[in-house]
Amino acid sequence: MRLGADPEVFLINRSGDFVSSVGKIPGTKEQPHHISGMPPGFTVQQDNVALEFGIPPAANAKQFAEHIASVLAGARRHILPKGLSYATAASCVSFPKSQLNTAEANIFGCEPDFNAWTGKENPRPEAKNKNLRSCGGHLHVETQLDRIQVVRAMDVFLGLPSLFEDVSGSKRRELYGMPGAYRPKPYGVEYRTLSNYWVFSPGDCQAMFWRTQQALDFVMERGLLEDERVPTAIRTSNVELAAQLMQEYGV
Known about the structure:
Structural class: alpha+beta
Radius of gyration: 17 Å
């Protein structure tokens, strides 16, 4: 197994105000911007009001954490405009209207994603608060195992623990982060349930790798999950049910 990621982060100015990335960050979905002086695969791009990173796939937990730290540092040195920095504890924010007056700041989810529990395409995000924006911490899993099985197992080993670790998780689910959210990829699957809450902690980065490996091991040993309590716990942010399920599944 190798693991990649394309997390998003918000930008703030020296006063701590949230600032849109539009017009400040190079790169697009179609043409990510390679960070100068770094190996291939380390990229940035503007995504709605956030800055999105890309890393090459990592073969172990240590390398995965190093890749995340390297892309953050490289973009800080070579990409971020003077006076801007990362918002290190924000995965879901209501932006001021002054930062949302561009077309790019109002584009959501160009490509569809899917629900591994229902088999259906997820609806386009639409929050009651039109200024609400969120950052994902999507994981890209290289595997030949069945995608549906992998995503359901990742809900157990990553989605359930995130209910205790991601302070903005329930608010983010007004837009993104529902259980079983994924996109099929030629190399495997992109798991889209998590926010970016783990990105700035090397220990949390390593945990994402280990937990993903646990999920794959579960699939190889036990096959397809049919436990509807898992998506219910994530969808409703039910930490009591999540704790029970984590104990049952040995998370």
